[in-house]
Amino acid sequence: MSRIAYFGPQGTFTEQAARRLAPGEELLPAETIPAALAAVRAGEADAACVPIENSVEGAVTATLDSLSDAEPLVAVAEVLLPVHFSVLTRPGTTEIRTVASHPHALAQVRHWVEANLPGAHPVATSSTAAAAVAVDAGEFDAAVTAPVAVEHYPLAVLATEVADVRDAKTRFLLVRPPGELPSPTGADRTSIVAAATNRTGALAELLTELAVRGINLTKLDARPTRNNFGEYRFFIDFEGHVTEPRIGDALAALRRRCRNVRFLGSHPRADGGATEVEPGAANEDFTDAIDWVESVRKGAQA
Ligand SMILES: O=C(O)C(=O)C[C@]1(C(=O)O)C=C[C@@H](O)C=C1
């Protein structure tokens, strides 16, 4: 049985994602995202499940930063979960002055809290389930949690299906140390983090290397390197799998152009969206072109 660290404690959205990505495996809760990834790097877990992106609040920056620091880890699978919240209180609570949750969750229920709990102060906790723990301990009055949290903590349900934006989703990754890659499926996502050289047009050149090969981006985030003010790393997700000639060709070009490129994985997309390829940018076009150059070099073809 594999050991899967996840961003916990019990009752987080990430725990549900881990159950979907690694059914039947042993789940080990970690208090923070860096701690879940550190458990894999230390060999205490075989893989980790962490959130990466929310359709309302965008990137989960703790995950981006932890994936670009320390020893490399690669994503091998992803899952998309619908996100709506329950609001939990201690049984018998009559006045709600504080509402606790993960900052991403608070941002997704801001209007609901203003309308339904006027005057209540939002308080950030390490996760949605950590908010439930804190409410149970009497630290805060209400917790904004995953619906499943009420099964783990002795709290009363004040409201369900709470969300300012309908049909919100969060994408979660299963990451592990570099090893055998998942096979390409034709509907894959590749992720990298690239440190461009600090000069005019560097980001535009980097993106052009992808664009000229007909590679469709699915996400782009910039994060500071934290060493020099104004210096950034770019987290780029795009359609395709590293084993495809056109993706390999693009990665080789980025490796030439950037100060540093870290490969963060190629795996099937949870939304199933098949990779669309522009005319002239199909894998066969790349292999045909390489074969043609080879034949020219051998003098077989003018
Ligand atoms: O706190 C949790 O339950 C999490 O799994 C984290 C997280 C996030 O990082 O965005 C996951 C989904 C929701 O968008 C809110 C919080």
TrEMBL record:
InterPro entries, per the entry: ACT-like_dom_sf (IPR045865), ACT_dom (IPR002912), Chor_mutase/pphenate_deHydtase (IPR008242), Preph_deHydtase (IPR001086), Preph_deHydtase_CS (IPR018528)
Catalysed conversion reaction: prephenate + H(+) = 3-phenylpyruvate + CO2 + H2O
Functional pathway: Amino-acid biosynthesis; L-phenylalanine biosynthesis; phenylpyruvate from prephenate: step 1/1
GO cellular component term, pick one: cytoplasm
Enzyme class: lyase
UniProt source species: Amycolatopsis regifaucium
Keyword Amino-acid biosynthesis: yes
Name listed for the protein in its UniProt record: Prephenate dehydratase
Site (Essential for prephenate dehydratase activity): T170
All copies of domain Prephenate dehydratase, residue ranges: 3-177
